[in-house]
Amino acid sequence: MIEIAFLGGAATVTGSKHVIRTSRATVLIECGLFQGHRADANRRNRSLPLDAAALDAVVLSHAHLDHSGALPVLAHHGYRGPIYATPATRDLCAPMLEDAASIQRADARHIDRLIARGVDLEPVTPLYDHDDVVAALALMVGLPYHRRQTIAPGIDLTFLDAGHVLGSAVVVLDVEDRGVQLRIAFTGDLGRPNMPILRDPEIPERVDYLITESTYGDRRHPPIAESQDALAAAVARTAARGGKLVIPSFALERAQEIIFALGQLRHRGALPQLPIYVDSPLATKLTDVFRLHPDLYDRETFAQLQSGSLFEFEGLRYVVDAEASKAIDTEPGPAIVIAGSGMCEGGRVLHHLRTMVSDPRNTIAIVGFQAEHTLGRRITERRPQVKIFGVMRELHAEVVVFDGFSAHADQAGLLAFAEAVRARHASSALRGTFLVHGEPPAQAALAAQLVARGFQHVVAPTCGQRVALT
Ligand SMILES: [Zn+2]
Ligand SMILES: [Zn+2]
To answer: Which residues, 6+ apart, have CB-to-CB distance to 143 below 8 Å?
Structure first.
């Protein structure tokens, strides 16, 4: 009997965890962090919904924390088996997980200080520490794309390129149990064709069951090139006003794509002479990992390596020192500042926003998804006032929103991928499609489109649901 259990990332976009179980083996796909309201997320992240010691192997599709962020919890709970990931994913996980641990430590200290001041709050302890991160990293085994590997009795793993972030993989499992043989493909997070730097998503063949993400199952993204041109125009307007342009950015992939896009604009002479600061120690470390993996770039990006580094160009500076970060705001004249966090909930971007939001010469460029109840969302909605470090400030800076930089397939992309997978089965007999990693409205819209195209057994599982695969 081959069974799949959906233990996280079901009807939500965080906490991805899926278990494949046979009579001989148990394999966990993803071990992501739940994100959201602090108390609830903390409780769910602390208690693993599975027996860590009973797992034969763990498979990780990519380095984003909603997929990888609970690996140190797994190590803390005694897991000592292999964690398979592509070499780039393993390299990216080192700074990503270290950063997650230090944010948890800082958060816990912050709450302690508030409690000491008499604020009525529950104390929190970090989910994991440096030692747990090191323990998890020590278990990671790099498996390159297209190399089939037996990872447990009767279970073989092959990674294909998912085109979502550097090292991201579509996970293909060949599972055999008591004479039944099935191929299960999991998209991880699916990228888009024609993304800068990355290759296009690859299509697995002869798939019996498809597990697909559905984040943007109800949306359509504008083309990336459109957003790049709009970004150039926003930079030009801001520079003409003598203002600064701040880009709140996620550290993995988005930051490198923005740096890459600005580099292209500079080479084309489409960018005014102004300093560009990458003001994020995490983004800087992750960019170093991008430099280590030219083998993963698409053809156009690889060709550009001949004319110099992709992540170095005139005027671009990586800012590590905290004092140098603060000095950016007092420098006269136009500049571009790329800083985290991506939704303006913490990190150095808050210091820049504090000094920049009320000056109409400045621009805030939103290049990523902004969840409800975040400062980034309020800025996106152009509220007249926004609260930064506990103080209400007038929002007079220009706000521009670019949806085209998304690293996720939109509805058309998800449908095209599912149809391509089905077409690669000799008998076009895809037996079932599971929708994970999406909010219910996005899943409902995608499911309706799939059913209309003749897909059978389209299911959006609830958290904890188990399904026998035949
Ligand atoms: Zn992702
Ligand atoms: Zn994700």
So the answer is: 84, 85, 86, 87, 149, 157, 159
Q: Which residues surround ligand 2, an ion (CB under 5 A)?
A: 66, 189
- List pLDDT tens digits, range 368-424: 988 888 899 999 999 999 999 889 999 999 999 998 999 999 999 999 999 999 999
3-state secondary structure at position 211 = strand
Reported as a single tens digit per residue, the pLDDT across 244-265 is 999 999 999 999 999 999 998 9
Which ligand neighbours the alpha carbon of 62 most closely?
1
pLDDT at 56 over 90: yes
pLDDT score recorded for residue 110: 86
Residues in the chain: 470
- Torsional class of 161: left (φ above 0), alpha (ψ -120 to 50), beta (otherwise): beta
Q: How far is CA 238 from CA 224, 230, 349, 400, 411, in A?
A: 21, 12, 18, 11, 34
Burial class of residue 405, CB neighbours in 10 A (0-12, 13-18, 19+)? buried
Is 70 strand, coil or helix? coil
Closest Cα to residue 280, out of 243, 238, 324, 228? 324
Could you tell me the distance, in angstroms and rounded to a whole number, from the CA of residue 437 to the centre of ligand 2?
A: 7
Ramachandran angles phi, psi of 166, nearest 5°: -55, 130
Angle (nearest 5°) at CA 99 between 105 and 389: 65
Selection from 201, 95, 184 nearest residue 145 by Cα: 201
